[in-house]
Amino acid sequence: MSEEIIENLDTVVPEEVKTPEVKEEGKPEADVKTVLAQKEHFRTKAERLEKELSEAKGKPAEATITLEAIKIGKKLEKYSDEVIDDVAKVIKSTNPNDILAALENPYIKRGIEAKQQEEINKSKVPGSSGSIGYGNQKSPDEIRKLTPEEHMKLDQESLRPSTGI
């Protein structure tokens, strides 16, 4: 009767559900040896790295300013922090070499110059509009050297109503 059940199971249970038979019995031992070798390799590597880390924690941090960083700093020295920040935003990079390259771009140079000129114009004190002066604006030394006739002519020009700005 048990033979009949076993025969019926063979027909009822599909092939995918049956356990595959192991054909090579020596293969699992090779896999175990490989895994053990890998385990030992990574254990020694982890020990070495932990030792290096503990040694590095005991030492003070060293300054690692390179000659290239010093050169970049010298080149950026003539620009304000605001200009450098603005250029970095425009080029969407904070890499110093990218910023230096962008500062050489003629369009960015013109933008910087325009902004500087705008700041200069804002800082200038406007002159008084009612000041009386000579139209030709001669220096005091030039005025001293003028003849009496030239003085009269210059006075008459200064008394004429202004025709422009």
Percent in strands:
under 5%
What's the gyration radius in Å? Answer: 44 Å
Major sheet summary line: none
Structure classification: mainly alpha
Uncertain stretches: none
Question: Topology as H/E string?
Answer: HHHHHHHH
Terminal Cα span = 124 Å
Number of helices: 8
- Shape designation: rod-shaped
Helix percent reads: 55-70%
> Average pLDDT, to the nearest integer?
76
DSSP, total strands: 0
Record the SSE blueprint.
Blueprint: H1 2-12, H2 27-58, H3 67-76, H4 81-91, H5 96-103, H6 106-123, H7 140-144, H8 148-159
Structure description:
The N and C termini lie far apart (124 Å). The chain has 8 helices and no strands. Helix content is 65%, strand content 0%. The protein is rod-shaped. The mean pLDDT is 76. By secondary structure, the chain is mostly helical. It has a domain of 56 residues.
Structural descriptors:
single chain, 165 residues, mainly alpha, 8 helices
Could you write a compact summary of the structure shown?
This protein is mainly alpha-helical and 165 residues long.
